[in-house]
């Protein structure tokens, strides 16, 4: 069970992810907007996560993850459930791409660290 400090740190991480996005803002699916089940499945595949891994990292039960992924379309369930799933995937270094002519997607977030010679 996460402590209050853990939850606070997680909330700050989620906020920083939003600030950290320095790529074309029109192509990024902003925090709070809907993502699709296919994006969630693709995100898990990029990370090599099972439904169980996502359940542990998001705090959502594995049966709920399986039930949500058995559907198609936008990630359903309670808003809090979708936010936790998205936050877990984003905190692992992913960002969700919105429909921008090329289609919805997910990718690893670009690092802001510059390479020093």
Which tags fit this structure?
single chain; 117 residues; mainly alpha; 434 Repressor (Amino-terminal Domain); two-stranded antiparallel sheet
Topology (elements, then pairings):
Blueprint lengths: L3 H17 L16 H11 L3 H8 L3 H8 L9 H13 L2 E4 L7 E4 L9
Antiparallel strand pairs: 1-2
Helix pairs in contact: 3-4, 3-5
What features would you describe in this structure?
The chain has a single domain (about 5-110), classed as lambda repressor-like DNA-binding domains (434 Repressor (Amino-terminal Domain), Orthogonal Bundle). The chain is about 50% helix and about 5% strand. It contains 5 helices and 2 strands. It has helices at about 5-20, 35-45, 50-60, 60-70, 80-90; strands at about 95, 105-110. It has a two-stranded antiparallel sheet with strand order 1-2. A hairpin with a 7-residue loop joins β1 (about 95) and β2. About 15% of the residues are buried. Mean pLDDT is about 80; it is low at about 20-30.
